[in-house]
Amino acid sequence: MDENLKQKRSDCKRIVLFGPESTGKTTLAKKLAYHFQTSWVPEFAREYLEKKMVQTGEICSYDDLYTIAIEQIKQENKLIKLANKYIFCDTNLVSTQVYSEVYFNKCDNRILTANHKNKYDLYFLTDVDIPWVKDLVRDKPNERKKMFRFFEDKLIDMNISFYILSGNIQKRLNDAILHIEKL
Fold first, then answer.
1. Residues near 156 by beta carbon (within 8 Å), at least 6 away in sequence
2. What mean pLDDT is reported for the chain?
3. What is the pTM of this model?
């Protein structure tokens, strides 16, 4: 396995907020980290792609995805050292895989291998039943249900257990906390 994509060992429970764009993942990751007084891992792709868009006017290319994957794992490995019992990941490399397959009909084998080796303790799939909010990189406001199915199908295909979080942010937060406390 590519060492750049390998998770560092930890006793922390790794919890992933997973799903299409504009479904409240970042908000939930922050609120859950605050509730459990621990760390959360931001989505590196957002920072990277917004910066690229501002500097060059270009959108994501296939070659960007490996760089994004390396930095996402690097951030996770750095922040897990600061976490207590849990760490909340705003995304992970399975999400990178989904977007790679949707936009480019392929995914780098190093990312695929990492997705079979790296482990997370809990996945929350965020529903598309909250308003879509435009930003520099979001581009699928009319394909939200289709994208949700891509994310859901990927978890099913990979035999990953998950819970769907629906409703407003407070309901999602309450439901997530209940599931986390069962870990």
1. none
2. 95
3. 0.94
